[in-house]
Every structure is written in structure tokens, then in C-alpha cells.
Amino acid sequence: MNKLFFPQGTLSIEDNKPAQEIAFCVCGGRKPAASWLNMTAEKLPGTPEFFAADRGLDYYHAAQFYPDRVIGDGDSADPVLWQQAVESGKAEVFPADKNETDLQLLLEILPPDKLWIFSGVYGGRLDHLLSAFETLGTEALQKNRTIVLADEREITVFVPEGVKIKFYPPAEETPVAVSLLAFTEKSKVSVSGTRWQLDETELSRNNPFAISNEMSEAEQLKELPHITFSCLAGMTVFYVAG
Amino acid sequence: MNKLFFPQGTLSIEDNKPAQEIAFCVCGGRKPAASWLNMTAEKLPGTPEFFAADRGLDYYHAAQFYPDRVIGDGDSADPVLWQQAVESGKAEVFPADKNETDLQLLLEILPPDKLWIFSGVYGGRLDHLLSAFETLGTEALQKNRTIVLADEREITVFVPEGVKIKFYPPAEETPVAVSLLAFTEKSKVSVSGTRWQLDETELSRNNPFAISNEMSEAEQLKELPHITFSCLAGMTVFYVAG
């Protein structure tokens, strides 16, 4: 089991073969709030290893945090920070004219045995977002691994078959919305603690309907309110806003 | 053929069975700039019909434009505007507790023989964006129709097999980026007028690589610079930023 303490709630991942350590990555999409990045990074369990893709370097810097390794073509990071990373031997520099995205290059150097968390992947252009979503989802599916995307506004988890997720918001708070999206053509899920419960329900990618669920009022009255989600078949995207 | 004049460029859709008229929709995602919405709506060919999903009503209002029909649960539109739409008989009101999203409800009332254009679909929450993307892409695929999403920052076209797209930026301008994404598991495409040309090339959904292409310098020297894209098999998403 992995417990990740995000400022907006605790994510518990119940996996048969849990990863022992964390690889935390910041990419060049929407900038995570510096305070969120700082609090999140400090509360990561074990001895996390920090990675940056290009402009992600700037986001670490804003949070006064420094990555262990940096990857990219250096075309979007602050030139001074990029130069420092190169001189310290932390940067892996690729030409700007390449087929792969920075994220795809990053995946090639991430330690395969660690739990991968990505920030700086939301927002921005639709082509970037879809490309990142497909690339990470495919990696999660093919390697049968759980992958987490997060910033202060949204948490997204690629949940393979057989993995259970629990989400505990801070006391007196509830998430704005909880959504489930099939990543494979079909998936089967159960979810409880929510207003609309699903019990071994089939989701299909081309007809999303499990969007904008909420924590149930009954759950909110319990001692440790949380949402429990299980992916029983296929791969499902578990999503929390707010 | 359909020619759509957007402020950031003209999109020409070469289809065997082109739609004669346009259904233009504004949904409740990222607000299109009022000036963009105004200019775009005024230049639509034929006699366009205007639709709003919920908060899309507010976006029309900001552009001093009024939709012909409004759909949703009224929970995110301005209450005064919503009330006016209800009283004028233009609104189709659904309960807030429903399985379908506002967009899915909207699709059920859109005239099937018209070309569908959607604005107010970008940005915001990942679950909303993905749900809209899958819903519209599936509709385009199943009904073998071209569907356009647009605002002042991004244009996205679901392009079925056999359809050709040309994009003409305004004089002295070039798009920030042109990307191609397979919507079906595989698709086959050709693209020219770009720095990286593709000739009957296979794209796969799970390994996106045709991202951030640019108009070629040679094309920019021509009299009427444009990008030509053809979808030869499967369905492909043609995307322009800026």
C-alpha cells in the first residue's frame, strides 16, 4: 500500500505489488502552486527521487525544491536554471527537433520499480494534454502499473485491474467532484462513499457517464469519511477535483 | 465543401457529402473571447442555427448574440438569462440529477444534417474535457461526420476517413502549432505545407508523435500559404493552436 498526502486529501493505493519508493516528476504544463508542490514533496513517503521535464525545472525552482534529474531540449526552461542543470551534470539534453515529446523521453529514464507521480501535466493546449494522457495511460496499461497525476486542483489516477483506491479529504472538507472514466474500451468498477454508488458496473470509454459524482452525506457524517474505488476489469481513470 | 472563417484562419473542409448549413454550439467550458465569438458567428456561411448548453448562454450574452435554443439544468448559467430563455420558450430544461452531461443532451437535439461546431469546450477540468472529447469523437466516428471545436486559441477537427482539410492562416501569420492525433486505435494520414510532411503515414492513438508541427518556410513564401491534411483511414484529430 502507498499513502500519498496531498494538501487536498490523502490518496491510498492498495496494490498487490506496491512500489516501495516514489519517482516524482514535474512537467511543463500548468504550473503547480509553489506551496502545493512544496507541501506535497515534503510529505512523500520514503526517499523520493525528483525529475523535471524542461519547464518543470522552473516550477521546482519556484517551490525552492531541486530535482535530481532534468530532461528535455531546454527550449522552454529558464536559460539560467537550464545552464545550471547542465553544468551540474543533472540534465539529459535532447535536440529540439525530435519525434518524442519531453514526457516520452522522461518515461525512458524513470526507474521502473518506483511509483510514478506527475505534476505540471494539466491545462494548456489540448494536443499536449491528450498526448500526455494517452502516453501515460498506455504506459500504465501495458506495464500494469498505477500512475498518479496531481496538482492543487486535480488528482488523476490510472488504476489497473485489481487495484483499489481510497481518497480521504481533509476534515470538514469534501472534494468538488469525483469522476470515473474508462481508459480501455470497457472497464468494470465499484465505488462507494459517493452519492451515486456503483457496484461492479461496466463503464465504456465512448459513452462517459460517471462524471461529477460527490461524497455522500451519510459518508460525511462518519468518523473518517472517504471514497473507496475498485477497478475490477480493464483500466479506469479515477479523478478528483478540488 | 464548407469554408469556415475564424479570426485565426480559414478552415476548408472537403467532404464528399458536405453539410449545407451550420449548427453552432457554445458549451460551458472555457469562455470564448466575446470578440472572437462575435466575429466567428457573423462570418458563418448560410443561415446558421445557434445552440447553448447551460453556461454557454452567458458566453453568447457577453458577445451580444442570442442562441435559438438552450439546453441544460440551469445550474451554471446566469439565473436571469436562464429565466429569460425559459420564458421565451427557448430552453429545454433537464433535472440536475441526470446521467447525461449537458453536451450529451445537446447532441440529441442537434439537427443531424448540419455541420456541428462547438465552442466553450476547452479548458477546465480534465474529466469534463475528456468526456466531451470522447463523446464528440465517438459521434463523429459512428455517424461518419466532421465535427469542429474552436475558440480563439485552439481549433480541433474530428476528421473521418476520406475527408480533406485545408487551413489558411491570415496574411503574414502562421499557426503556433499543428498537431495530428489518431482518434481510432490507428489512422492513416497525409499532411503537407508543414515542416515535417507525412505521406500516407500511420498514426497510433497510444503513441502520439505528430505533435507541434509548423508551417514550412517554403509554404510561407507561396501566394496563399496553407496546410493540407487528409485522413486516409480511421479517424484523426486535426489540431491548430494559435
From TrEMBL, chains A, B:
GO terms for biological process: thiamine diphosphate biosynthetic process; thiamine metabolic process. GO terms for molecular function: ATP binding; kinase activity; thiamine binding; thiamine diphosphokinase activity. Keywords: ATP-binding, Kinase, Nucleotide-binding, Transferase. Its EC number is 2.7.6.2. Gene3D superfamilies: Thiamin pyrophosphokinase, catalytic domain. Residues 176-219 form the Thiamin pyrophosphokinase thiamin-binding domain. Residues 51-147 form the Thiamin pyrophosphokinase catalytic domain. InterPro entries: Thi_PPkinase, Thiamin_PyroPKinase_B1-bd, TPK, TPK_catalytic, TPK_catalytic_sf. It holds the Pfam family TPK_B1_binding. PANTHER family: THIAMINE PYROPHOSPHOKINASE (PTHR41299). This is Thiamine diphosphokinase.
